[in-house]
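In this supplementary section we document a worked example of the pipeline. Step one takes a protein sequence of length 69 as its only input; no multiple sequence alignment statistics are reported here. Step two produces a three-dimensional model, which step three serialises into structure tokens for compact storage. The input and output of this example are shown verbatim.
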Amino acid sequence: MNAHSPGTNIPFGDLGKADKRAALLQAATEVFAEVGYANATIKRIAARAGTADGTLYNHFANKEALLLG
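The serialised model returned by step three reads:
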């Protein structure tokens, strides 16, 4: 994907592991704030971060793990 991680001009794939995790948490925070936890989806959070669902699952087991950070 060519999307940039939230708040940066850096493509998600170019980030280090810790920065990828931070970008996913930031994306989750934004999506949770916009649509609420119940309506937030992994697909939407991953898209906001500029990556695929599978990549998100490499860092977090599920949506609850994202909420707990």
